[in-house]
Structure formats: structure tokens, C-alpha cells
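[Q] Does anyone have a clean C-alpha cell version of this?
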Amino acid sequence: MPDPASAVGPPPASGPPGRATPQRLRGGVLGMADIAAATMANVGPAMSFFFGFAFLATTAGVASPLTIVAAGVAVALLGNTLAEFSRAHPSAGSFITFVGRTFGPVSAVTTALLAGLGYIVAMASVIAISGGFVQITLHHYTGLEIPWIIWTLLLTGLAMLLMLRGIEVSTKWAGYFFAVEMLVLVVVSVAAIAGHHGSLSAAPFLPGHITHGLDGLAAGFPIAVFLFVGWENSAALAEETENPRRNVGRAVFSSIAIMTVSYILFAYATVTGFGYDVRRLGGSPIPFIDVAQDTLGALAALAYVGGLTSTLGVLIAGINSQARLIFNAGREGLLPSFFGYVHPTRRTPDNAIVTFTVTALLIIGGWGLGHVLGGGPMDPVVFFTESSSLGAILILLVYLASNIALPLYYRRYRPQEFRPLRHLVLPATGALAILVPLYYLAKPGQPAPYSWFPYAALAALLAAVGYATLLVRRDPHLAERVGSVVADAE
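[A] Here you go.
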């Protein structure tokens, strides 16, 4: 059966109507292990766990590892959607292409804007915390108070240099950083569990120990899901991956499985290290660091190294993949063509990478200026939580649209391959799972600034739909260009 990419519009090799042949990234240079490592580096288990688990444990209680299990299952449902789309139509556009091919050009442009903005806002939190973590580390060991923004700019500049050198180089470095952080996390966790072997308990895995039962599980679910953000990284690298129809799905599922098991280990070690005292754990800025210091003493410095390599890995892997969504939208005409530029030698989407990063830095600067005008400096740890929460609302909307799109896509383009379980039941369950964190992120009664985030997200959605509608009316060929560049097409 012919691929749907050629069912609507011209063959990919000829380019969209009225436009030059779109520029291509360097094809087939990454293997399955490369994109899986990049995906897990994008998840950034050390960074995510360091700054997210205290809130999760406070919300869900001693049995917070069960919340991680629930989140892992929910993310695996989303992984099925991404894998099935990538098997049928691999594209650097990822969610943008998948939604656009299903619902048409207005949805494609809307998704491009929401995904781009959501990922940039979320990545701003990572960029800020990279410098913030260096500041925390230096202050702990030397007492020096060098402003975190200086370290943020230095680390971001280093990450950009690696990304602009090429996908092979930057992906390998992201993999190296991920390997270091995982080694540290596993060593500390095993040492903590061994050091408390006399008081080990199955309480963290008993549903009766979840605070407030299902309400506590649901309340902690959004932050548990956020621990996995970045799981979708491999789809945007499809064009540079060998056999993307097979390898993207494998990378997605293997990454989700490894991260789920790892987070359960880290969570159990942390809860055990605090003697199952959730109140004391919740009062710690970075509980895992405290467990490392209690268990390893001076060797706890390794945990700080793990946190630093984690932020660097997320910077590289996250911007690499997320900027490619913007790049693909630019070359297909969903966003300005400026973003569709590829460096002639390195085959990297330079304009998309630089614009993505600079915009994230401007968001940090604007947010910081608001704090200064409000009477005080911006705390990067607080900003991490705020910015990631706002970005998560927009990203979850994109996840939701993709799950709704999958069954419709297969029924329309690949009816012979449609399977009720994979293409209807699983994505429908995934869509329902997404509604839980969306509700808790958007529910009324939250303190500022979280109380206005839902309104900001709604405004962004309405503006994106309005812009998309005008663009489609102005450009009659836009529908033919959505998804016109297939990752493994010659």
C-alpha cells in the first residue's frame, strides 16, 4: 500500500507546490541506541527527580513510587501513539505532522505554534536551572555566590556549540552526560538501600500508604508525568535515524521502560533514606542530595556531578529535538521559511536551534524582570516549577490532540492496518490519562502565578487558531505541504 505521504500532494522529492525543494537533514546517521540515549538524556532523570520528587512525595505520600508506576503506564500509552504514527509516517515534524495529516492545515499550524511555544517555555525552565544548580553546588562547597544567570549563559552557549557542530557529535555528548548521571543515581540509590537494609519496608508499594487514596494519587500524577517529559525526543530525530519506522518506536518504548524502573528505584531509595518520613522529605530542597550525603558522606559530591551532567544532557537533547519540530514547520510553510534553513555542510537546522534558544533566554529575562519590578530577584528553582508548569499545559494539549488523531488517521489512510487495540483502545485510554494532569494544572483556586496559567494557555490556543485560519486562507497549497517531507523518503 502506498505511503499516505504521497496520497495527498506531490512526492516528497519534488518539493511542495510553488516552493523550492525543501532542505533535508543528514539522513541515517543515528542508530536506535543513539536516539534512545538522546531520549533519556532529554528526560534528564537526575534533574527531573532532584527538583520534582519532594513535591510528589508530599502529595502522594510514602507510596509515591506507585504514582510513578501509574505515570509510566500513562506515558507508555502515549508512546504507542507516537510509535504507530512514526511507523506509518516518520517525520521530523513529529506531533505537528501527525495532527496536521489527520485534521488538516489549520490544526497543523495550530499544533506547530502550541508545541513550539510549549517546548520553549518548558526548556526555559531547564536553561535556568542549569545555572541555578551550578550556583547551588558552588555555594555548598565553597560559599561563593556567583549569580546563576552567568552559569546559565555559559552552559547554554556550550550546548549550542555542540548542537551546531552536528547531530552525531551533540547526540553522543548527550549520551555521555546521561551515562554519568545514571551511574551516579544508581550508585547512590543502591548504597542508600543497602545502608538502610535493617529498616527496609514494602510500604512504598502498598496502595494503602498513598496519602488520601486515589485523590492523592491523582494529585501527584501531573508531577509524576512531568518526570517523563522528553520521552518523545526520538520522533523528531526520525529523519536522521536509520530505519525510523522501526527504530523510533523501539527507542520510545525502551526509554519509557528504563526510566520507569529507574524512577521507582530512585524513589524507593529516597523514601527509605528519609525513614519513610514524608514531612521531613518534603521539607528538603533536593531530597536525593540529602540521601547521598547521609549515605556517602564526602562522596555525595558525585550526586552534584550527576545533576550537572543531567542539565547539560537535557539542554543538548531537548533543544536538538524540539528545534527540529520548528525547523520542519518552517520548511513546510507552517511557520516562516527562515526556520527551514539547513547548514550546507553540517546539515543542522541552525536558525531553528538559535531562535529556539534565544527565545527561551528572553523568556527567562522577561520573567526575571517581572520579579525585579515586583521587589525581589528570581529564584531559578521556583522559576523551574513555574515555567515547566505553564509549558506542560501546552505540551499536554498537543499530546491529547495526537491521541485523538491516531484512530482517525489509520481509519482514513491505512484502513487495512487498523487494529482496534493499538489504534483505538490504547490512544483513547491515553487521552483519558492526559486529562488528569491537565485538570490539576488548570483547576481553579491555585495560587498565583499558577492561577493565570490556564488563561495564558487558552489565549495562546485561540491566537494560534486565529493565525492558522488566516494563513490557510492566504496559502491555498498549505494542505498539500503538511507532512510532505517523509523521513526515509529519497
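[Q] Thanks! Anything notable?
[A] The CA atoms of residues 16 and 361 lie 34 Å apart.
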